[in-house]
Structures are given as C-alpha cells and as structure tokens.
Specification:
Helix content is about 10%, strand content about 45%. The chain is mainly beta and about 260 residues long. The longest helix has 11 residues.
C-alpha cells in the first residue's frame, strides 16, 4: 500500500495511491487512516514529503563499493549521523545550491519510516516499528565535507534531504533495485542486498542510541557512483517497488525581507 501526503484545496491530507489515482483519507498513518470515499487524479494534488520527521538518521559507508570509492575503511558498526528536519523537501521541489559550496553531490538511498516510538528494539522486533519505505537523496556539499572533517554543515543545508514520493508499506527491503539518474543518465545502480547493515539492523542499532519517534526517517546509505550536480540539473532516485523521487537543482535564493 502506498501512502502519500498531499496538498489539496489548501489542506495537507494523506491518501492512498493506486496507479494514477489518489483516494483521500482522514487521520494519519500513525494513529490510523480512513478513506473518505473521495478520489482524484494524482496529478491534481501536490505531493508533499510523506512525513515530517523529528530527525533523519543517516548512514555513512553502508555499501562496500562506496567505502572503496571514497577510500575509507569499512565500519565495524553502523556509522550514523543526523540531518535536520529543516532539510526535508518533497517531490518536485528544488535542491538549492549553496553559494558556500563548489561541489554538491547526489546520494540515492532507501529510507525507512518509523511507525511508533522505538527504544532498545532487537533486529527481530524491528519490522513491528517500521511503517514502510521511501526514496531519499542524501544531498552533500562534498567540498565542505572534506574541509570540515565532519558532516553536519555539508549535509545539513536547507533542501538537502529530498524525501518521497510516498511510503510503500508492503515491501521487503532486503533486496531491492536502487538507481539514481542525473538528467536521465544512470549514475548509481545497486541492490539493497549489498548493504553492510540491513534496515532491521539499522533500526535496532539506532534505537539503542536514541529514541525513534513516529515519522522519523533512517536513510540506509548510498552505493558507489556518487557525483556532482549543477544548477539546471535534474536528479531522480528510483527504487524497485516504490517509485521515483525527482528534484531539480536551482541556485540558492536569499531570504527576502
């Protein structure tokens, strides 16, 4: 089942996606969704980020080929970091290229959406705490990452966490095709079976560190093939069984007023 969050008639509502149709619903995915019997073409509603996470827990070096690509040693346990909730944007929204960076990269990833409060759960229990899965782009100012020697600034700019297009709730995440396209050209391709730490292990590990809340997101890491984007580009993260998350790249726009 695909659950979308949309802007329709100036209201933010959830709905169920079936092909090109959207069935509107009352409530939310965490307390319960009830269809209200109203349908509309999906194109008539603006897709929003499917959730508003309190935090995004992201993974570094969770594919062997990516660790080799950047010349870093494989981690012995998950290497987690945080991206701020203010970085989240939805499908079709622009990734803004900050003037302080000269290289901004795409990083296509599978994202886990948490369904309920989770603390100290085991890998075997983890599926009970997962609402579903969506696409994620861990946008990174690569030059600032190398300059700072830590990742907060490089990965924390506004618009650096595209998320969507919806949540797929009926999916086994352990062997899915993940691809990233830049201007229609394939740049990343892997299967999630190549993850060093799978989604269930990541939920468990993270919950030993911090309490996960409904709507929180765990981004599971990117494979090899990372590369730069420039203003005017379009990037798509496509995952088997979910769909595609497409975002343009635009120049940073200073705040007015």
């Amino acid at each position: 089942m695909k659950i979308a969050r949309v802007l329709w008639k100036e209201r933010e509502v959830y709905g169920f996606v079936d092909g090109e149709r959207l069935t509107l619903a009352e409530g939310d995915p965490f307390s319960g969704l009830n269809p209200i019997g109203e349908e509309l073409p999906l194109e008539e509603a603006k897709l929003l980020p499917p959730v508003s996470p309190s935090k995004i827990v992201a993974l570094g070096l969770n594919y062997r080929d990516h660790a080799e690509e950047v010349g870093l040693k494989l981690p012995s346990e998950p290497l987690i970091f945080l991206k701020p909730s203010t970085a989240v944007i939805g499908p079709g929204e622009a990734i803004l290229y900050p003037p302080s960076s000269e290289r901004v990269d795409y990083e296509g990833e599978l994202a886990v959406v948490i369904s309920q409060r989770a603390k100290d759960v085991s890998p075997e229990e983890a599926p009970r705490y997962i609402l579903g899965y969506t696409c994620f782009n861990d946008v990174t100012a690569r030059d600032l990452q190398y300059k700072d020697k830590q990742w907060t600034r490089a990965k924390g700019f506004d618009t650096f966490a595209p998320l969507g297009p919806w949540i797929e709730t009926e999916l086994d995440p352990r062997d899915l095709l993940l691809e990233t396209y830049l201007n229609g050209e394939l740049r990343q391709s892997t299967r999630t079976s190549r993850l060093i730490f799978d989604p269930y292990q990541l939920v468990s590990f993270t919950s030993q560190v911090m309490t996960l809340l409904p709507g929180d997101v765990i981004a599971t890491g990117t494979p090899s093939g990372i590369g730069p984007m420039k203003v005017g580009d379009q990037v798509e993260v496509r995952i088997e069984g979910i769909g595609g998350l497409v975002n343009p790249v635009e120049a940073y726009r200073p705040r007015e007023g």
